[in-house]
Amino acid sequence: MAESTQLQYVWKQISERAKNIISPISYDHLFKYLDPVDISGRKIILRSSSDTNAETIMNKFADKLREAIVKCDLGVSDFRLVVDGSDVFTLDAEEDAFDAFTPSPINKNFTFDSFVVGPGTKFVYAAAKAVAENPGETFNPLFIYGESGLGKTHLMHAIANDLARRAPEKKVLYTTCENFLNEFIDSITQKNGARFRLHYRNVDVLMIDDVQFLKNKTQVQEEFFHTFNELSAQSKQIVLTSDRPPKEIATLEDRLRTRFEGGMIADIQPPSTETKIAILKRKALDRKCVVPDDVLELLAQNSGHDVRTLEGRLTKVIFASKLHEEPITLSLAKQALNESVNESEEQEDVTPDKIISAVCSYFKQSREDLLGKGKKADLAKARQICAYLMCEMLSLPLDFIGKTLGGRDHTTIMYARDKMEKLEKLNDKIAKEIDDIKNIVLKK
Fold it and tell me: Which has more pLDDT, 206 or 287?
C-alpha cells in the first residue's frame, strides 16, 4: 500500500500533465473527480465516480492518460480504474477482464514472407503490407474478400505478426465474426456489456474474419456499428474479411455497408497453376521435403481453387512417402492421390446427391437421418464428412451446402469442414474413410 502523501504527490504530477493533453471540458467532467487509491506494481489505482465515467475514460482517453503517466517518469507506467459497488471496475475482478490486453490467437507461421504472391494477390498483398506499416493511416478499413481457402486469414495474421515485430506496444485483436457474435450474446446474458465493449474498443488494431456472418443479425450489427465508429474516430485500424464484397452481403445494414466501402476493398483471386506450384514448393520447403517438379505439377492439376486442398494433396504424398519409406516420385504421388480413379475426368460428374448417397451407403445411414436433426456420434461424423467432401470436391458455397444438408447454418458447415480437414491429416482411420467414400463417388 502506497503512503498517502506519496500517492497524492504522484497523482498531482500526473493530473497536471493530463491537463496539458486533454481538453479542459473533458478534464473537468471526467478526470477532476478521479481519486488515487493505491499503487500496485507499476500501476496507479484510481477510483472513478461511476461505471459510465470509467467506461468513457477507458474508451476515449486511456491512451492520453497513459501518456501523461509515462511522461511523469515516477515509476508507474499504467493505470487501473475502480468504481465502488461495480461488477466491472473492481479490484476483485480478474485484471484482464477489463483493462489488460489478452494476446490474440495469431498463427506465427502466417507471415508476409511465407505468403506466396501471385498475379491475383499482388494488390491485396501490397494493401495488407501498407496497413501493417502505417496502421490507421493508409487504408481504413481494409476489406479483403474472396473464396474460402485463398489466404485471407493468412494475410490478417501476417499483419498482426508484422505489427508485433514493428510496434510491439500496439494492441492487436484478431477474432472471427462467430466469436464476436457469441461473446456479444454472452455479454447480454451475463449483463457485462461494458466489459465486452472495453474488450473490443480498447485496441489499436481490430481484425475480424468472415464478416459475412453478420447478415440477419440485427443486434450484432448495431453493436458492431458502434464499435466500428468508436475505433474509426480514434484512427484505429480495422481489417475485415469476407467471402463476398460488402454489396453482396444480404441484409447488411446500409450504414455498415457504406462504412465497409469507405476504405480499401481488395479481392483475392484464385491462384494460377504457376502460383500453385510456387505455393507447393514453399510448403514442401517448410516441411524439409524434396518434391520433384513433375510431382508438383501433378499436385497443381485439377486441385480446385482452395489452397487448403492444395496443401492437403501435398500432405497425402509426403505421408505416403514416409509410410512406404520411399522417395517422392510421380508414380508414388499418383498412387497416393488415387489417380487410378481418374480424378480429372470423373470430377465433372460429381454432384451433392452422389456424395450424400455415397456417405449413406458407406456408413449405412438413411438419407432421412443424415439430413435430419439426430445428434448421435456416428451420425454426426457421417454428416461432417459429407459436408467436408462437398467443400473439397465441389467447392460449393457454404450456404448452399448447409441448405442441401437439411437446412443447416453455414457456420456448422465451416466447423465440419475444418474439423475433418484436420482429422484427415492426423487420423489414419478417418483418412481411409474419406478416401474410400471419394472412390465410391468417383466410380459411380
Answer: 206
- pLDDT category at 394 given cuts 50, 70, 90 is confident
Measured distance CA(19)–CA(50) in Å, rounded = 21
- pLDDT tens per residue, range 51-84: 888 888 887 888 788 888 878 877 777 888 888 8
